[in-house]
Design brief:
The protein has 143 residues and is mainly α. Helix content is 49%, strand content 6%. The protein has a two-stranded antiparallel ribbon with strand order 1-2. Helix 1 packs antiparallel against helix 2, helix 1 runs parallel beside helix 3 and helix 4 packs across helix 5.
Length: 143
């Protein structure tokens, strides 16, 4: 049962907070310099679907992401364990943010400065998070 752990419940809450992408939306022209509107929209929708799936997967198998496995029936809302579980579903997305914030495209590849990522990343169990990201098509080489 995915609601066995506090982190699973919060992953579903975070998933349900994702914005529904409307059928039509405005795109700032700066995003369309090198790709068409259709390519941008398709990529944006794919990323939205991937984030939805990531949160669903976190809820179903938080251990795969190295997240805390505190049982719902053992901790009250104000415990330190419950506070940790509320923020834990963001770890994967915080790591993604760090990777993208510290990188750039070079020769058709996205290259990240790992030393810079280490400075700003606050997510724990990064190795498990990187492995989980591989399951969504990310490729890490030279780490």
């Amino acid at each position: 049962m995915k609601d066995l752990y506090l982190v699973s419940r919060w992953a579903l809450i975070r998933r349900n907070e994702l914005v529904d992408i409307p059928d039509h939306f405005e795109i700032h022209p700066d995003f369309l310099h090198e790709i068409s509107r259709e390519e941008f929209e398709n990529a944006f929708r794919e990323i939205g679907a991937m984030f939805y799936q990531m949160y669903t997967d976190i809820a179903d198998a938080p251990q795969r992401f190295g997240l805390p496995l505190y049982r719902i029936d053992e901790y009250d809302y104000f415990s330190s364990q419950a506070r940790e579980a509320r923020s834990a579903p963001w770890n994967l997305f915080h790591l993604l943010f760090c990777l993208f914030a510290c990188g750039s495209f070079k020769g058709g590849m996205f290259v990240t400065d790992t030393a810079e990522v280490r400075k700003i990343n606050k997510a724990k169990k990064t190795n498990q998070l990187l492995q989980a990201l591989c399951d969504y098509g990310f490729v890490f080489d030279g780490i």
